[in-house]
Design brief:
It is a single chain. With 332 residues, the protein is an alpha/beta fold. It has one domain: Aldolase class I (TIM Barrel). Strands 1-2-3-4-5-6-7-8 form an eight-stranded parallel beta barrel, surrounded by six helices. Strand 2, helix 4 and strand 3 form a beta-alpha-beta unit. Helix 4 runs parallel beside helix 5, helix 11 runs antiparallel to helix 13 and helix 12 packs across helix 13. It is globular.
């Protein structure tokens, strides 16, 4: 147990962080959201109803641990089955995430879909108390740079909280569109789905201090973090948050050997819960969470459920490689 003085200091730091997140100041948000972005699955009950309390508890597990530094919680992204949620569910999900984080970590909530739906889901996230939205590019795509720009611009202007752009597709116009959108005061960064470093480098002096470049997954992070990205998305931080945070720090410092050591020995072993069979990218994580006593449930159709005979193997991987027993709770 921590000494009384250490507890007081820790609580003071958390209070400062909570105040910082509540300010929605772009510079504060960019600093706060550097590090590992811990992407959460969305728990459902057996009948596919949203398990909002299960999500709250899943996130509180991290908030009550000693692994909140350089960690951002992301809900309702692709891993969180955003496109299966209706607006009321998306808002309830956002509320549960904010309650679970307890002001100890920034919360990012997925928003997007058609134009009106994107506006609504962005406002839902703001009303729930999230620090930022992850704004998906239009579900139906855009044939022009101006169309993409106007979509992102209008949604960003509809809220005061931070906006992380999520441009998808190989269109050559993305660097220019991102650069134009970066002029909006609450647009703080982008999730890079390109798999390379060209888009990030094309943003020039915006990177790294004025605009947050977020790599997508560990493989991309190995390239992007040494090149100027200051955050990366990960599906397995829910099991190994410390390893993911350390991986990111080493990447920013350009320590490739240390990154690869963490990837090989601590991250890839637990990532096998997703790759046990094709189609288990989300459902495998949910089964692994259940094995650790956390909320999981089924994936919604048309997602692939884990077969009964595969569940014990996934549970074994989760129990063997998770940091579950190493996290020190701050819970009273």
């Amino acid at each position: 147990m921590a000494a009384a003085g250490s507890l007081v200091a820790s609580r003071g730091l958390l209070a400062n962080k909570k105040s910082q997140y509540a300010s929605h100041d772009p510079k504060d948000l960019i600093r706060a959201m550097q590090g590992a972005h811990n992407y959460q699955t969305t728990p459902f009950r057996p009948n596919y109803d949203l398990d909002a309390d299960g999500l709250r508890k899943n996130i509180a597990y991290h908030a009550d641990s000693d692994a909140t530094e350089n960690a951002t919680i992301v809900v309702g992204a692709g891993l969180g089955e955003f496109f299966t949620l209706d607006p009321d569910e998306q808002k309830a999900m956002a509320q549960a995430a904010v309650a679970g984080a307890k002001g100890r970590m920034p919360v990012v909530v997925g928003a997007g879909g058609g134009y009106k739906l994107a506006l609504q889901t962005a406002r839902n996230a703001q009303e729930a108390g999230a620090q930022a939205i992850l704004l998906f590019s239009p579900a139906y795509g855009s044939e022009s740079a101006d169309g993409a720009y106007e979509y992102f611009r209008d949604v960003a202007r509809s809220v005061r909280i931070g906006v992380i752009l999520y441009p998808r597709g190989k269109e050559a116009y993305w660097p220019d569109v991102i650069r134009r959108l970066a002029e909006l005061p609450n647009v703080i960064g982008f999730k890079d789905a390109s798999g390379g470093v060209e888009v990030g480098k094309a943003l020039g002096s915006l990177i790294p201090d004025r605009f947050l470049w977020i790599a997508e997954g560990e493989t991309h992070a190995v390239q992007a973090l040494p090149a100027g990205a200051r955050a990366y998305t990960t599906a397995v931080a829910t099991f190994v948050p410390r390893a993911c945070s350390e991986f990111c720090k080493h990447g920013v410092a350009g320590k490739l050997a240390a990154m690869n050591e963490l990837l090989t020995n601590r991250i890839e072993p637990v990532a096998k819960v997703r790759g046990h069979k094709p189609g288990y990218g989300i459902s495998g994580i949910k089964v692994a969470l259940e094995a650790l006593g956390r909320a999981g449930g089924p994936v919604r159709p048309p997602g692939t459920q884990v077969l009964k005979e595969d569940r014990p193997k996934i549970a074994e991987i989760a129990r063997k490689y998770s940091e579950e027993q190493k996290l020190v709770s701050r819970k009273a």
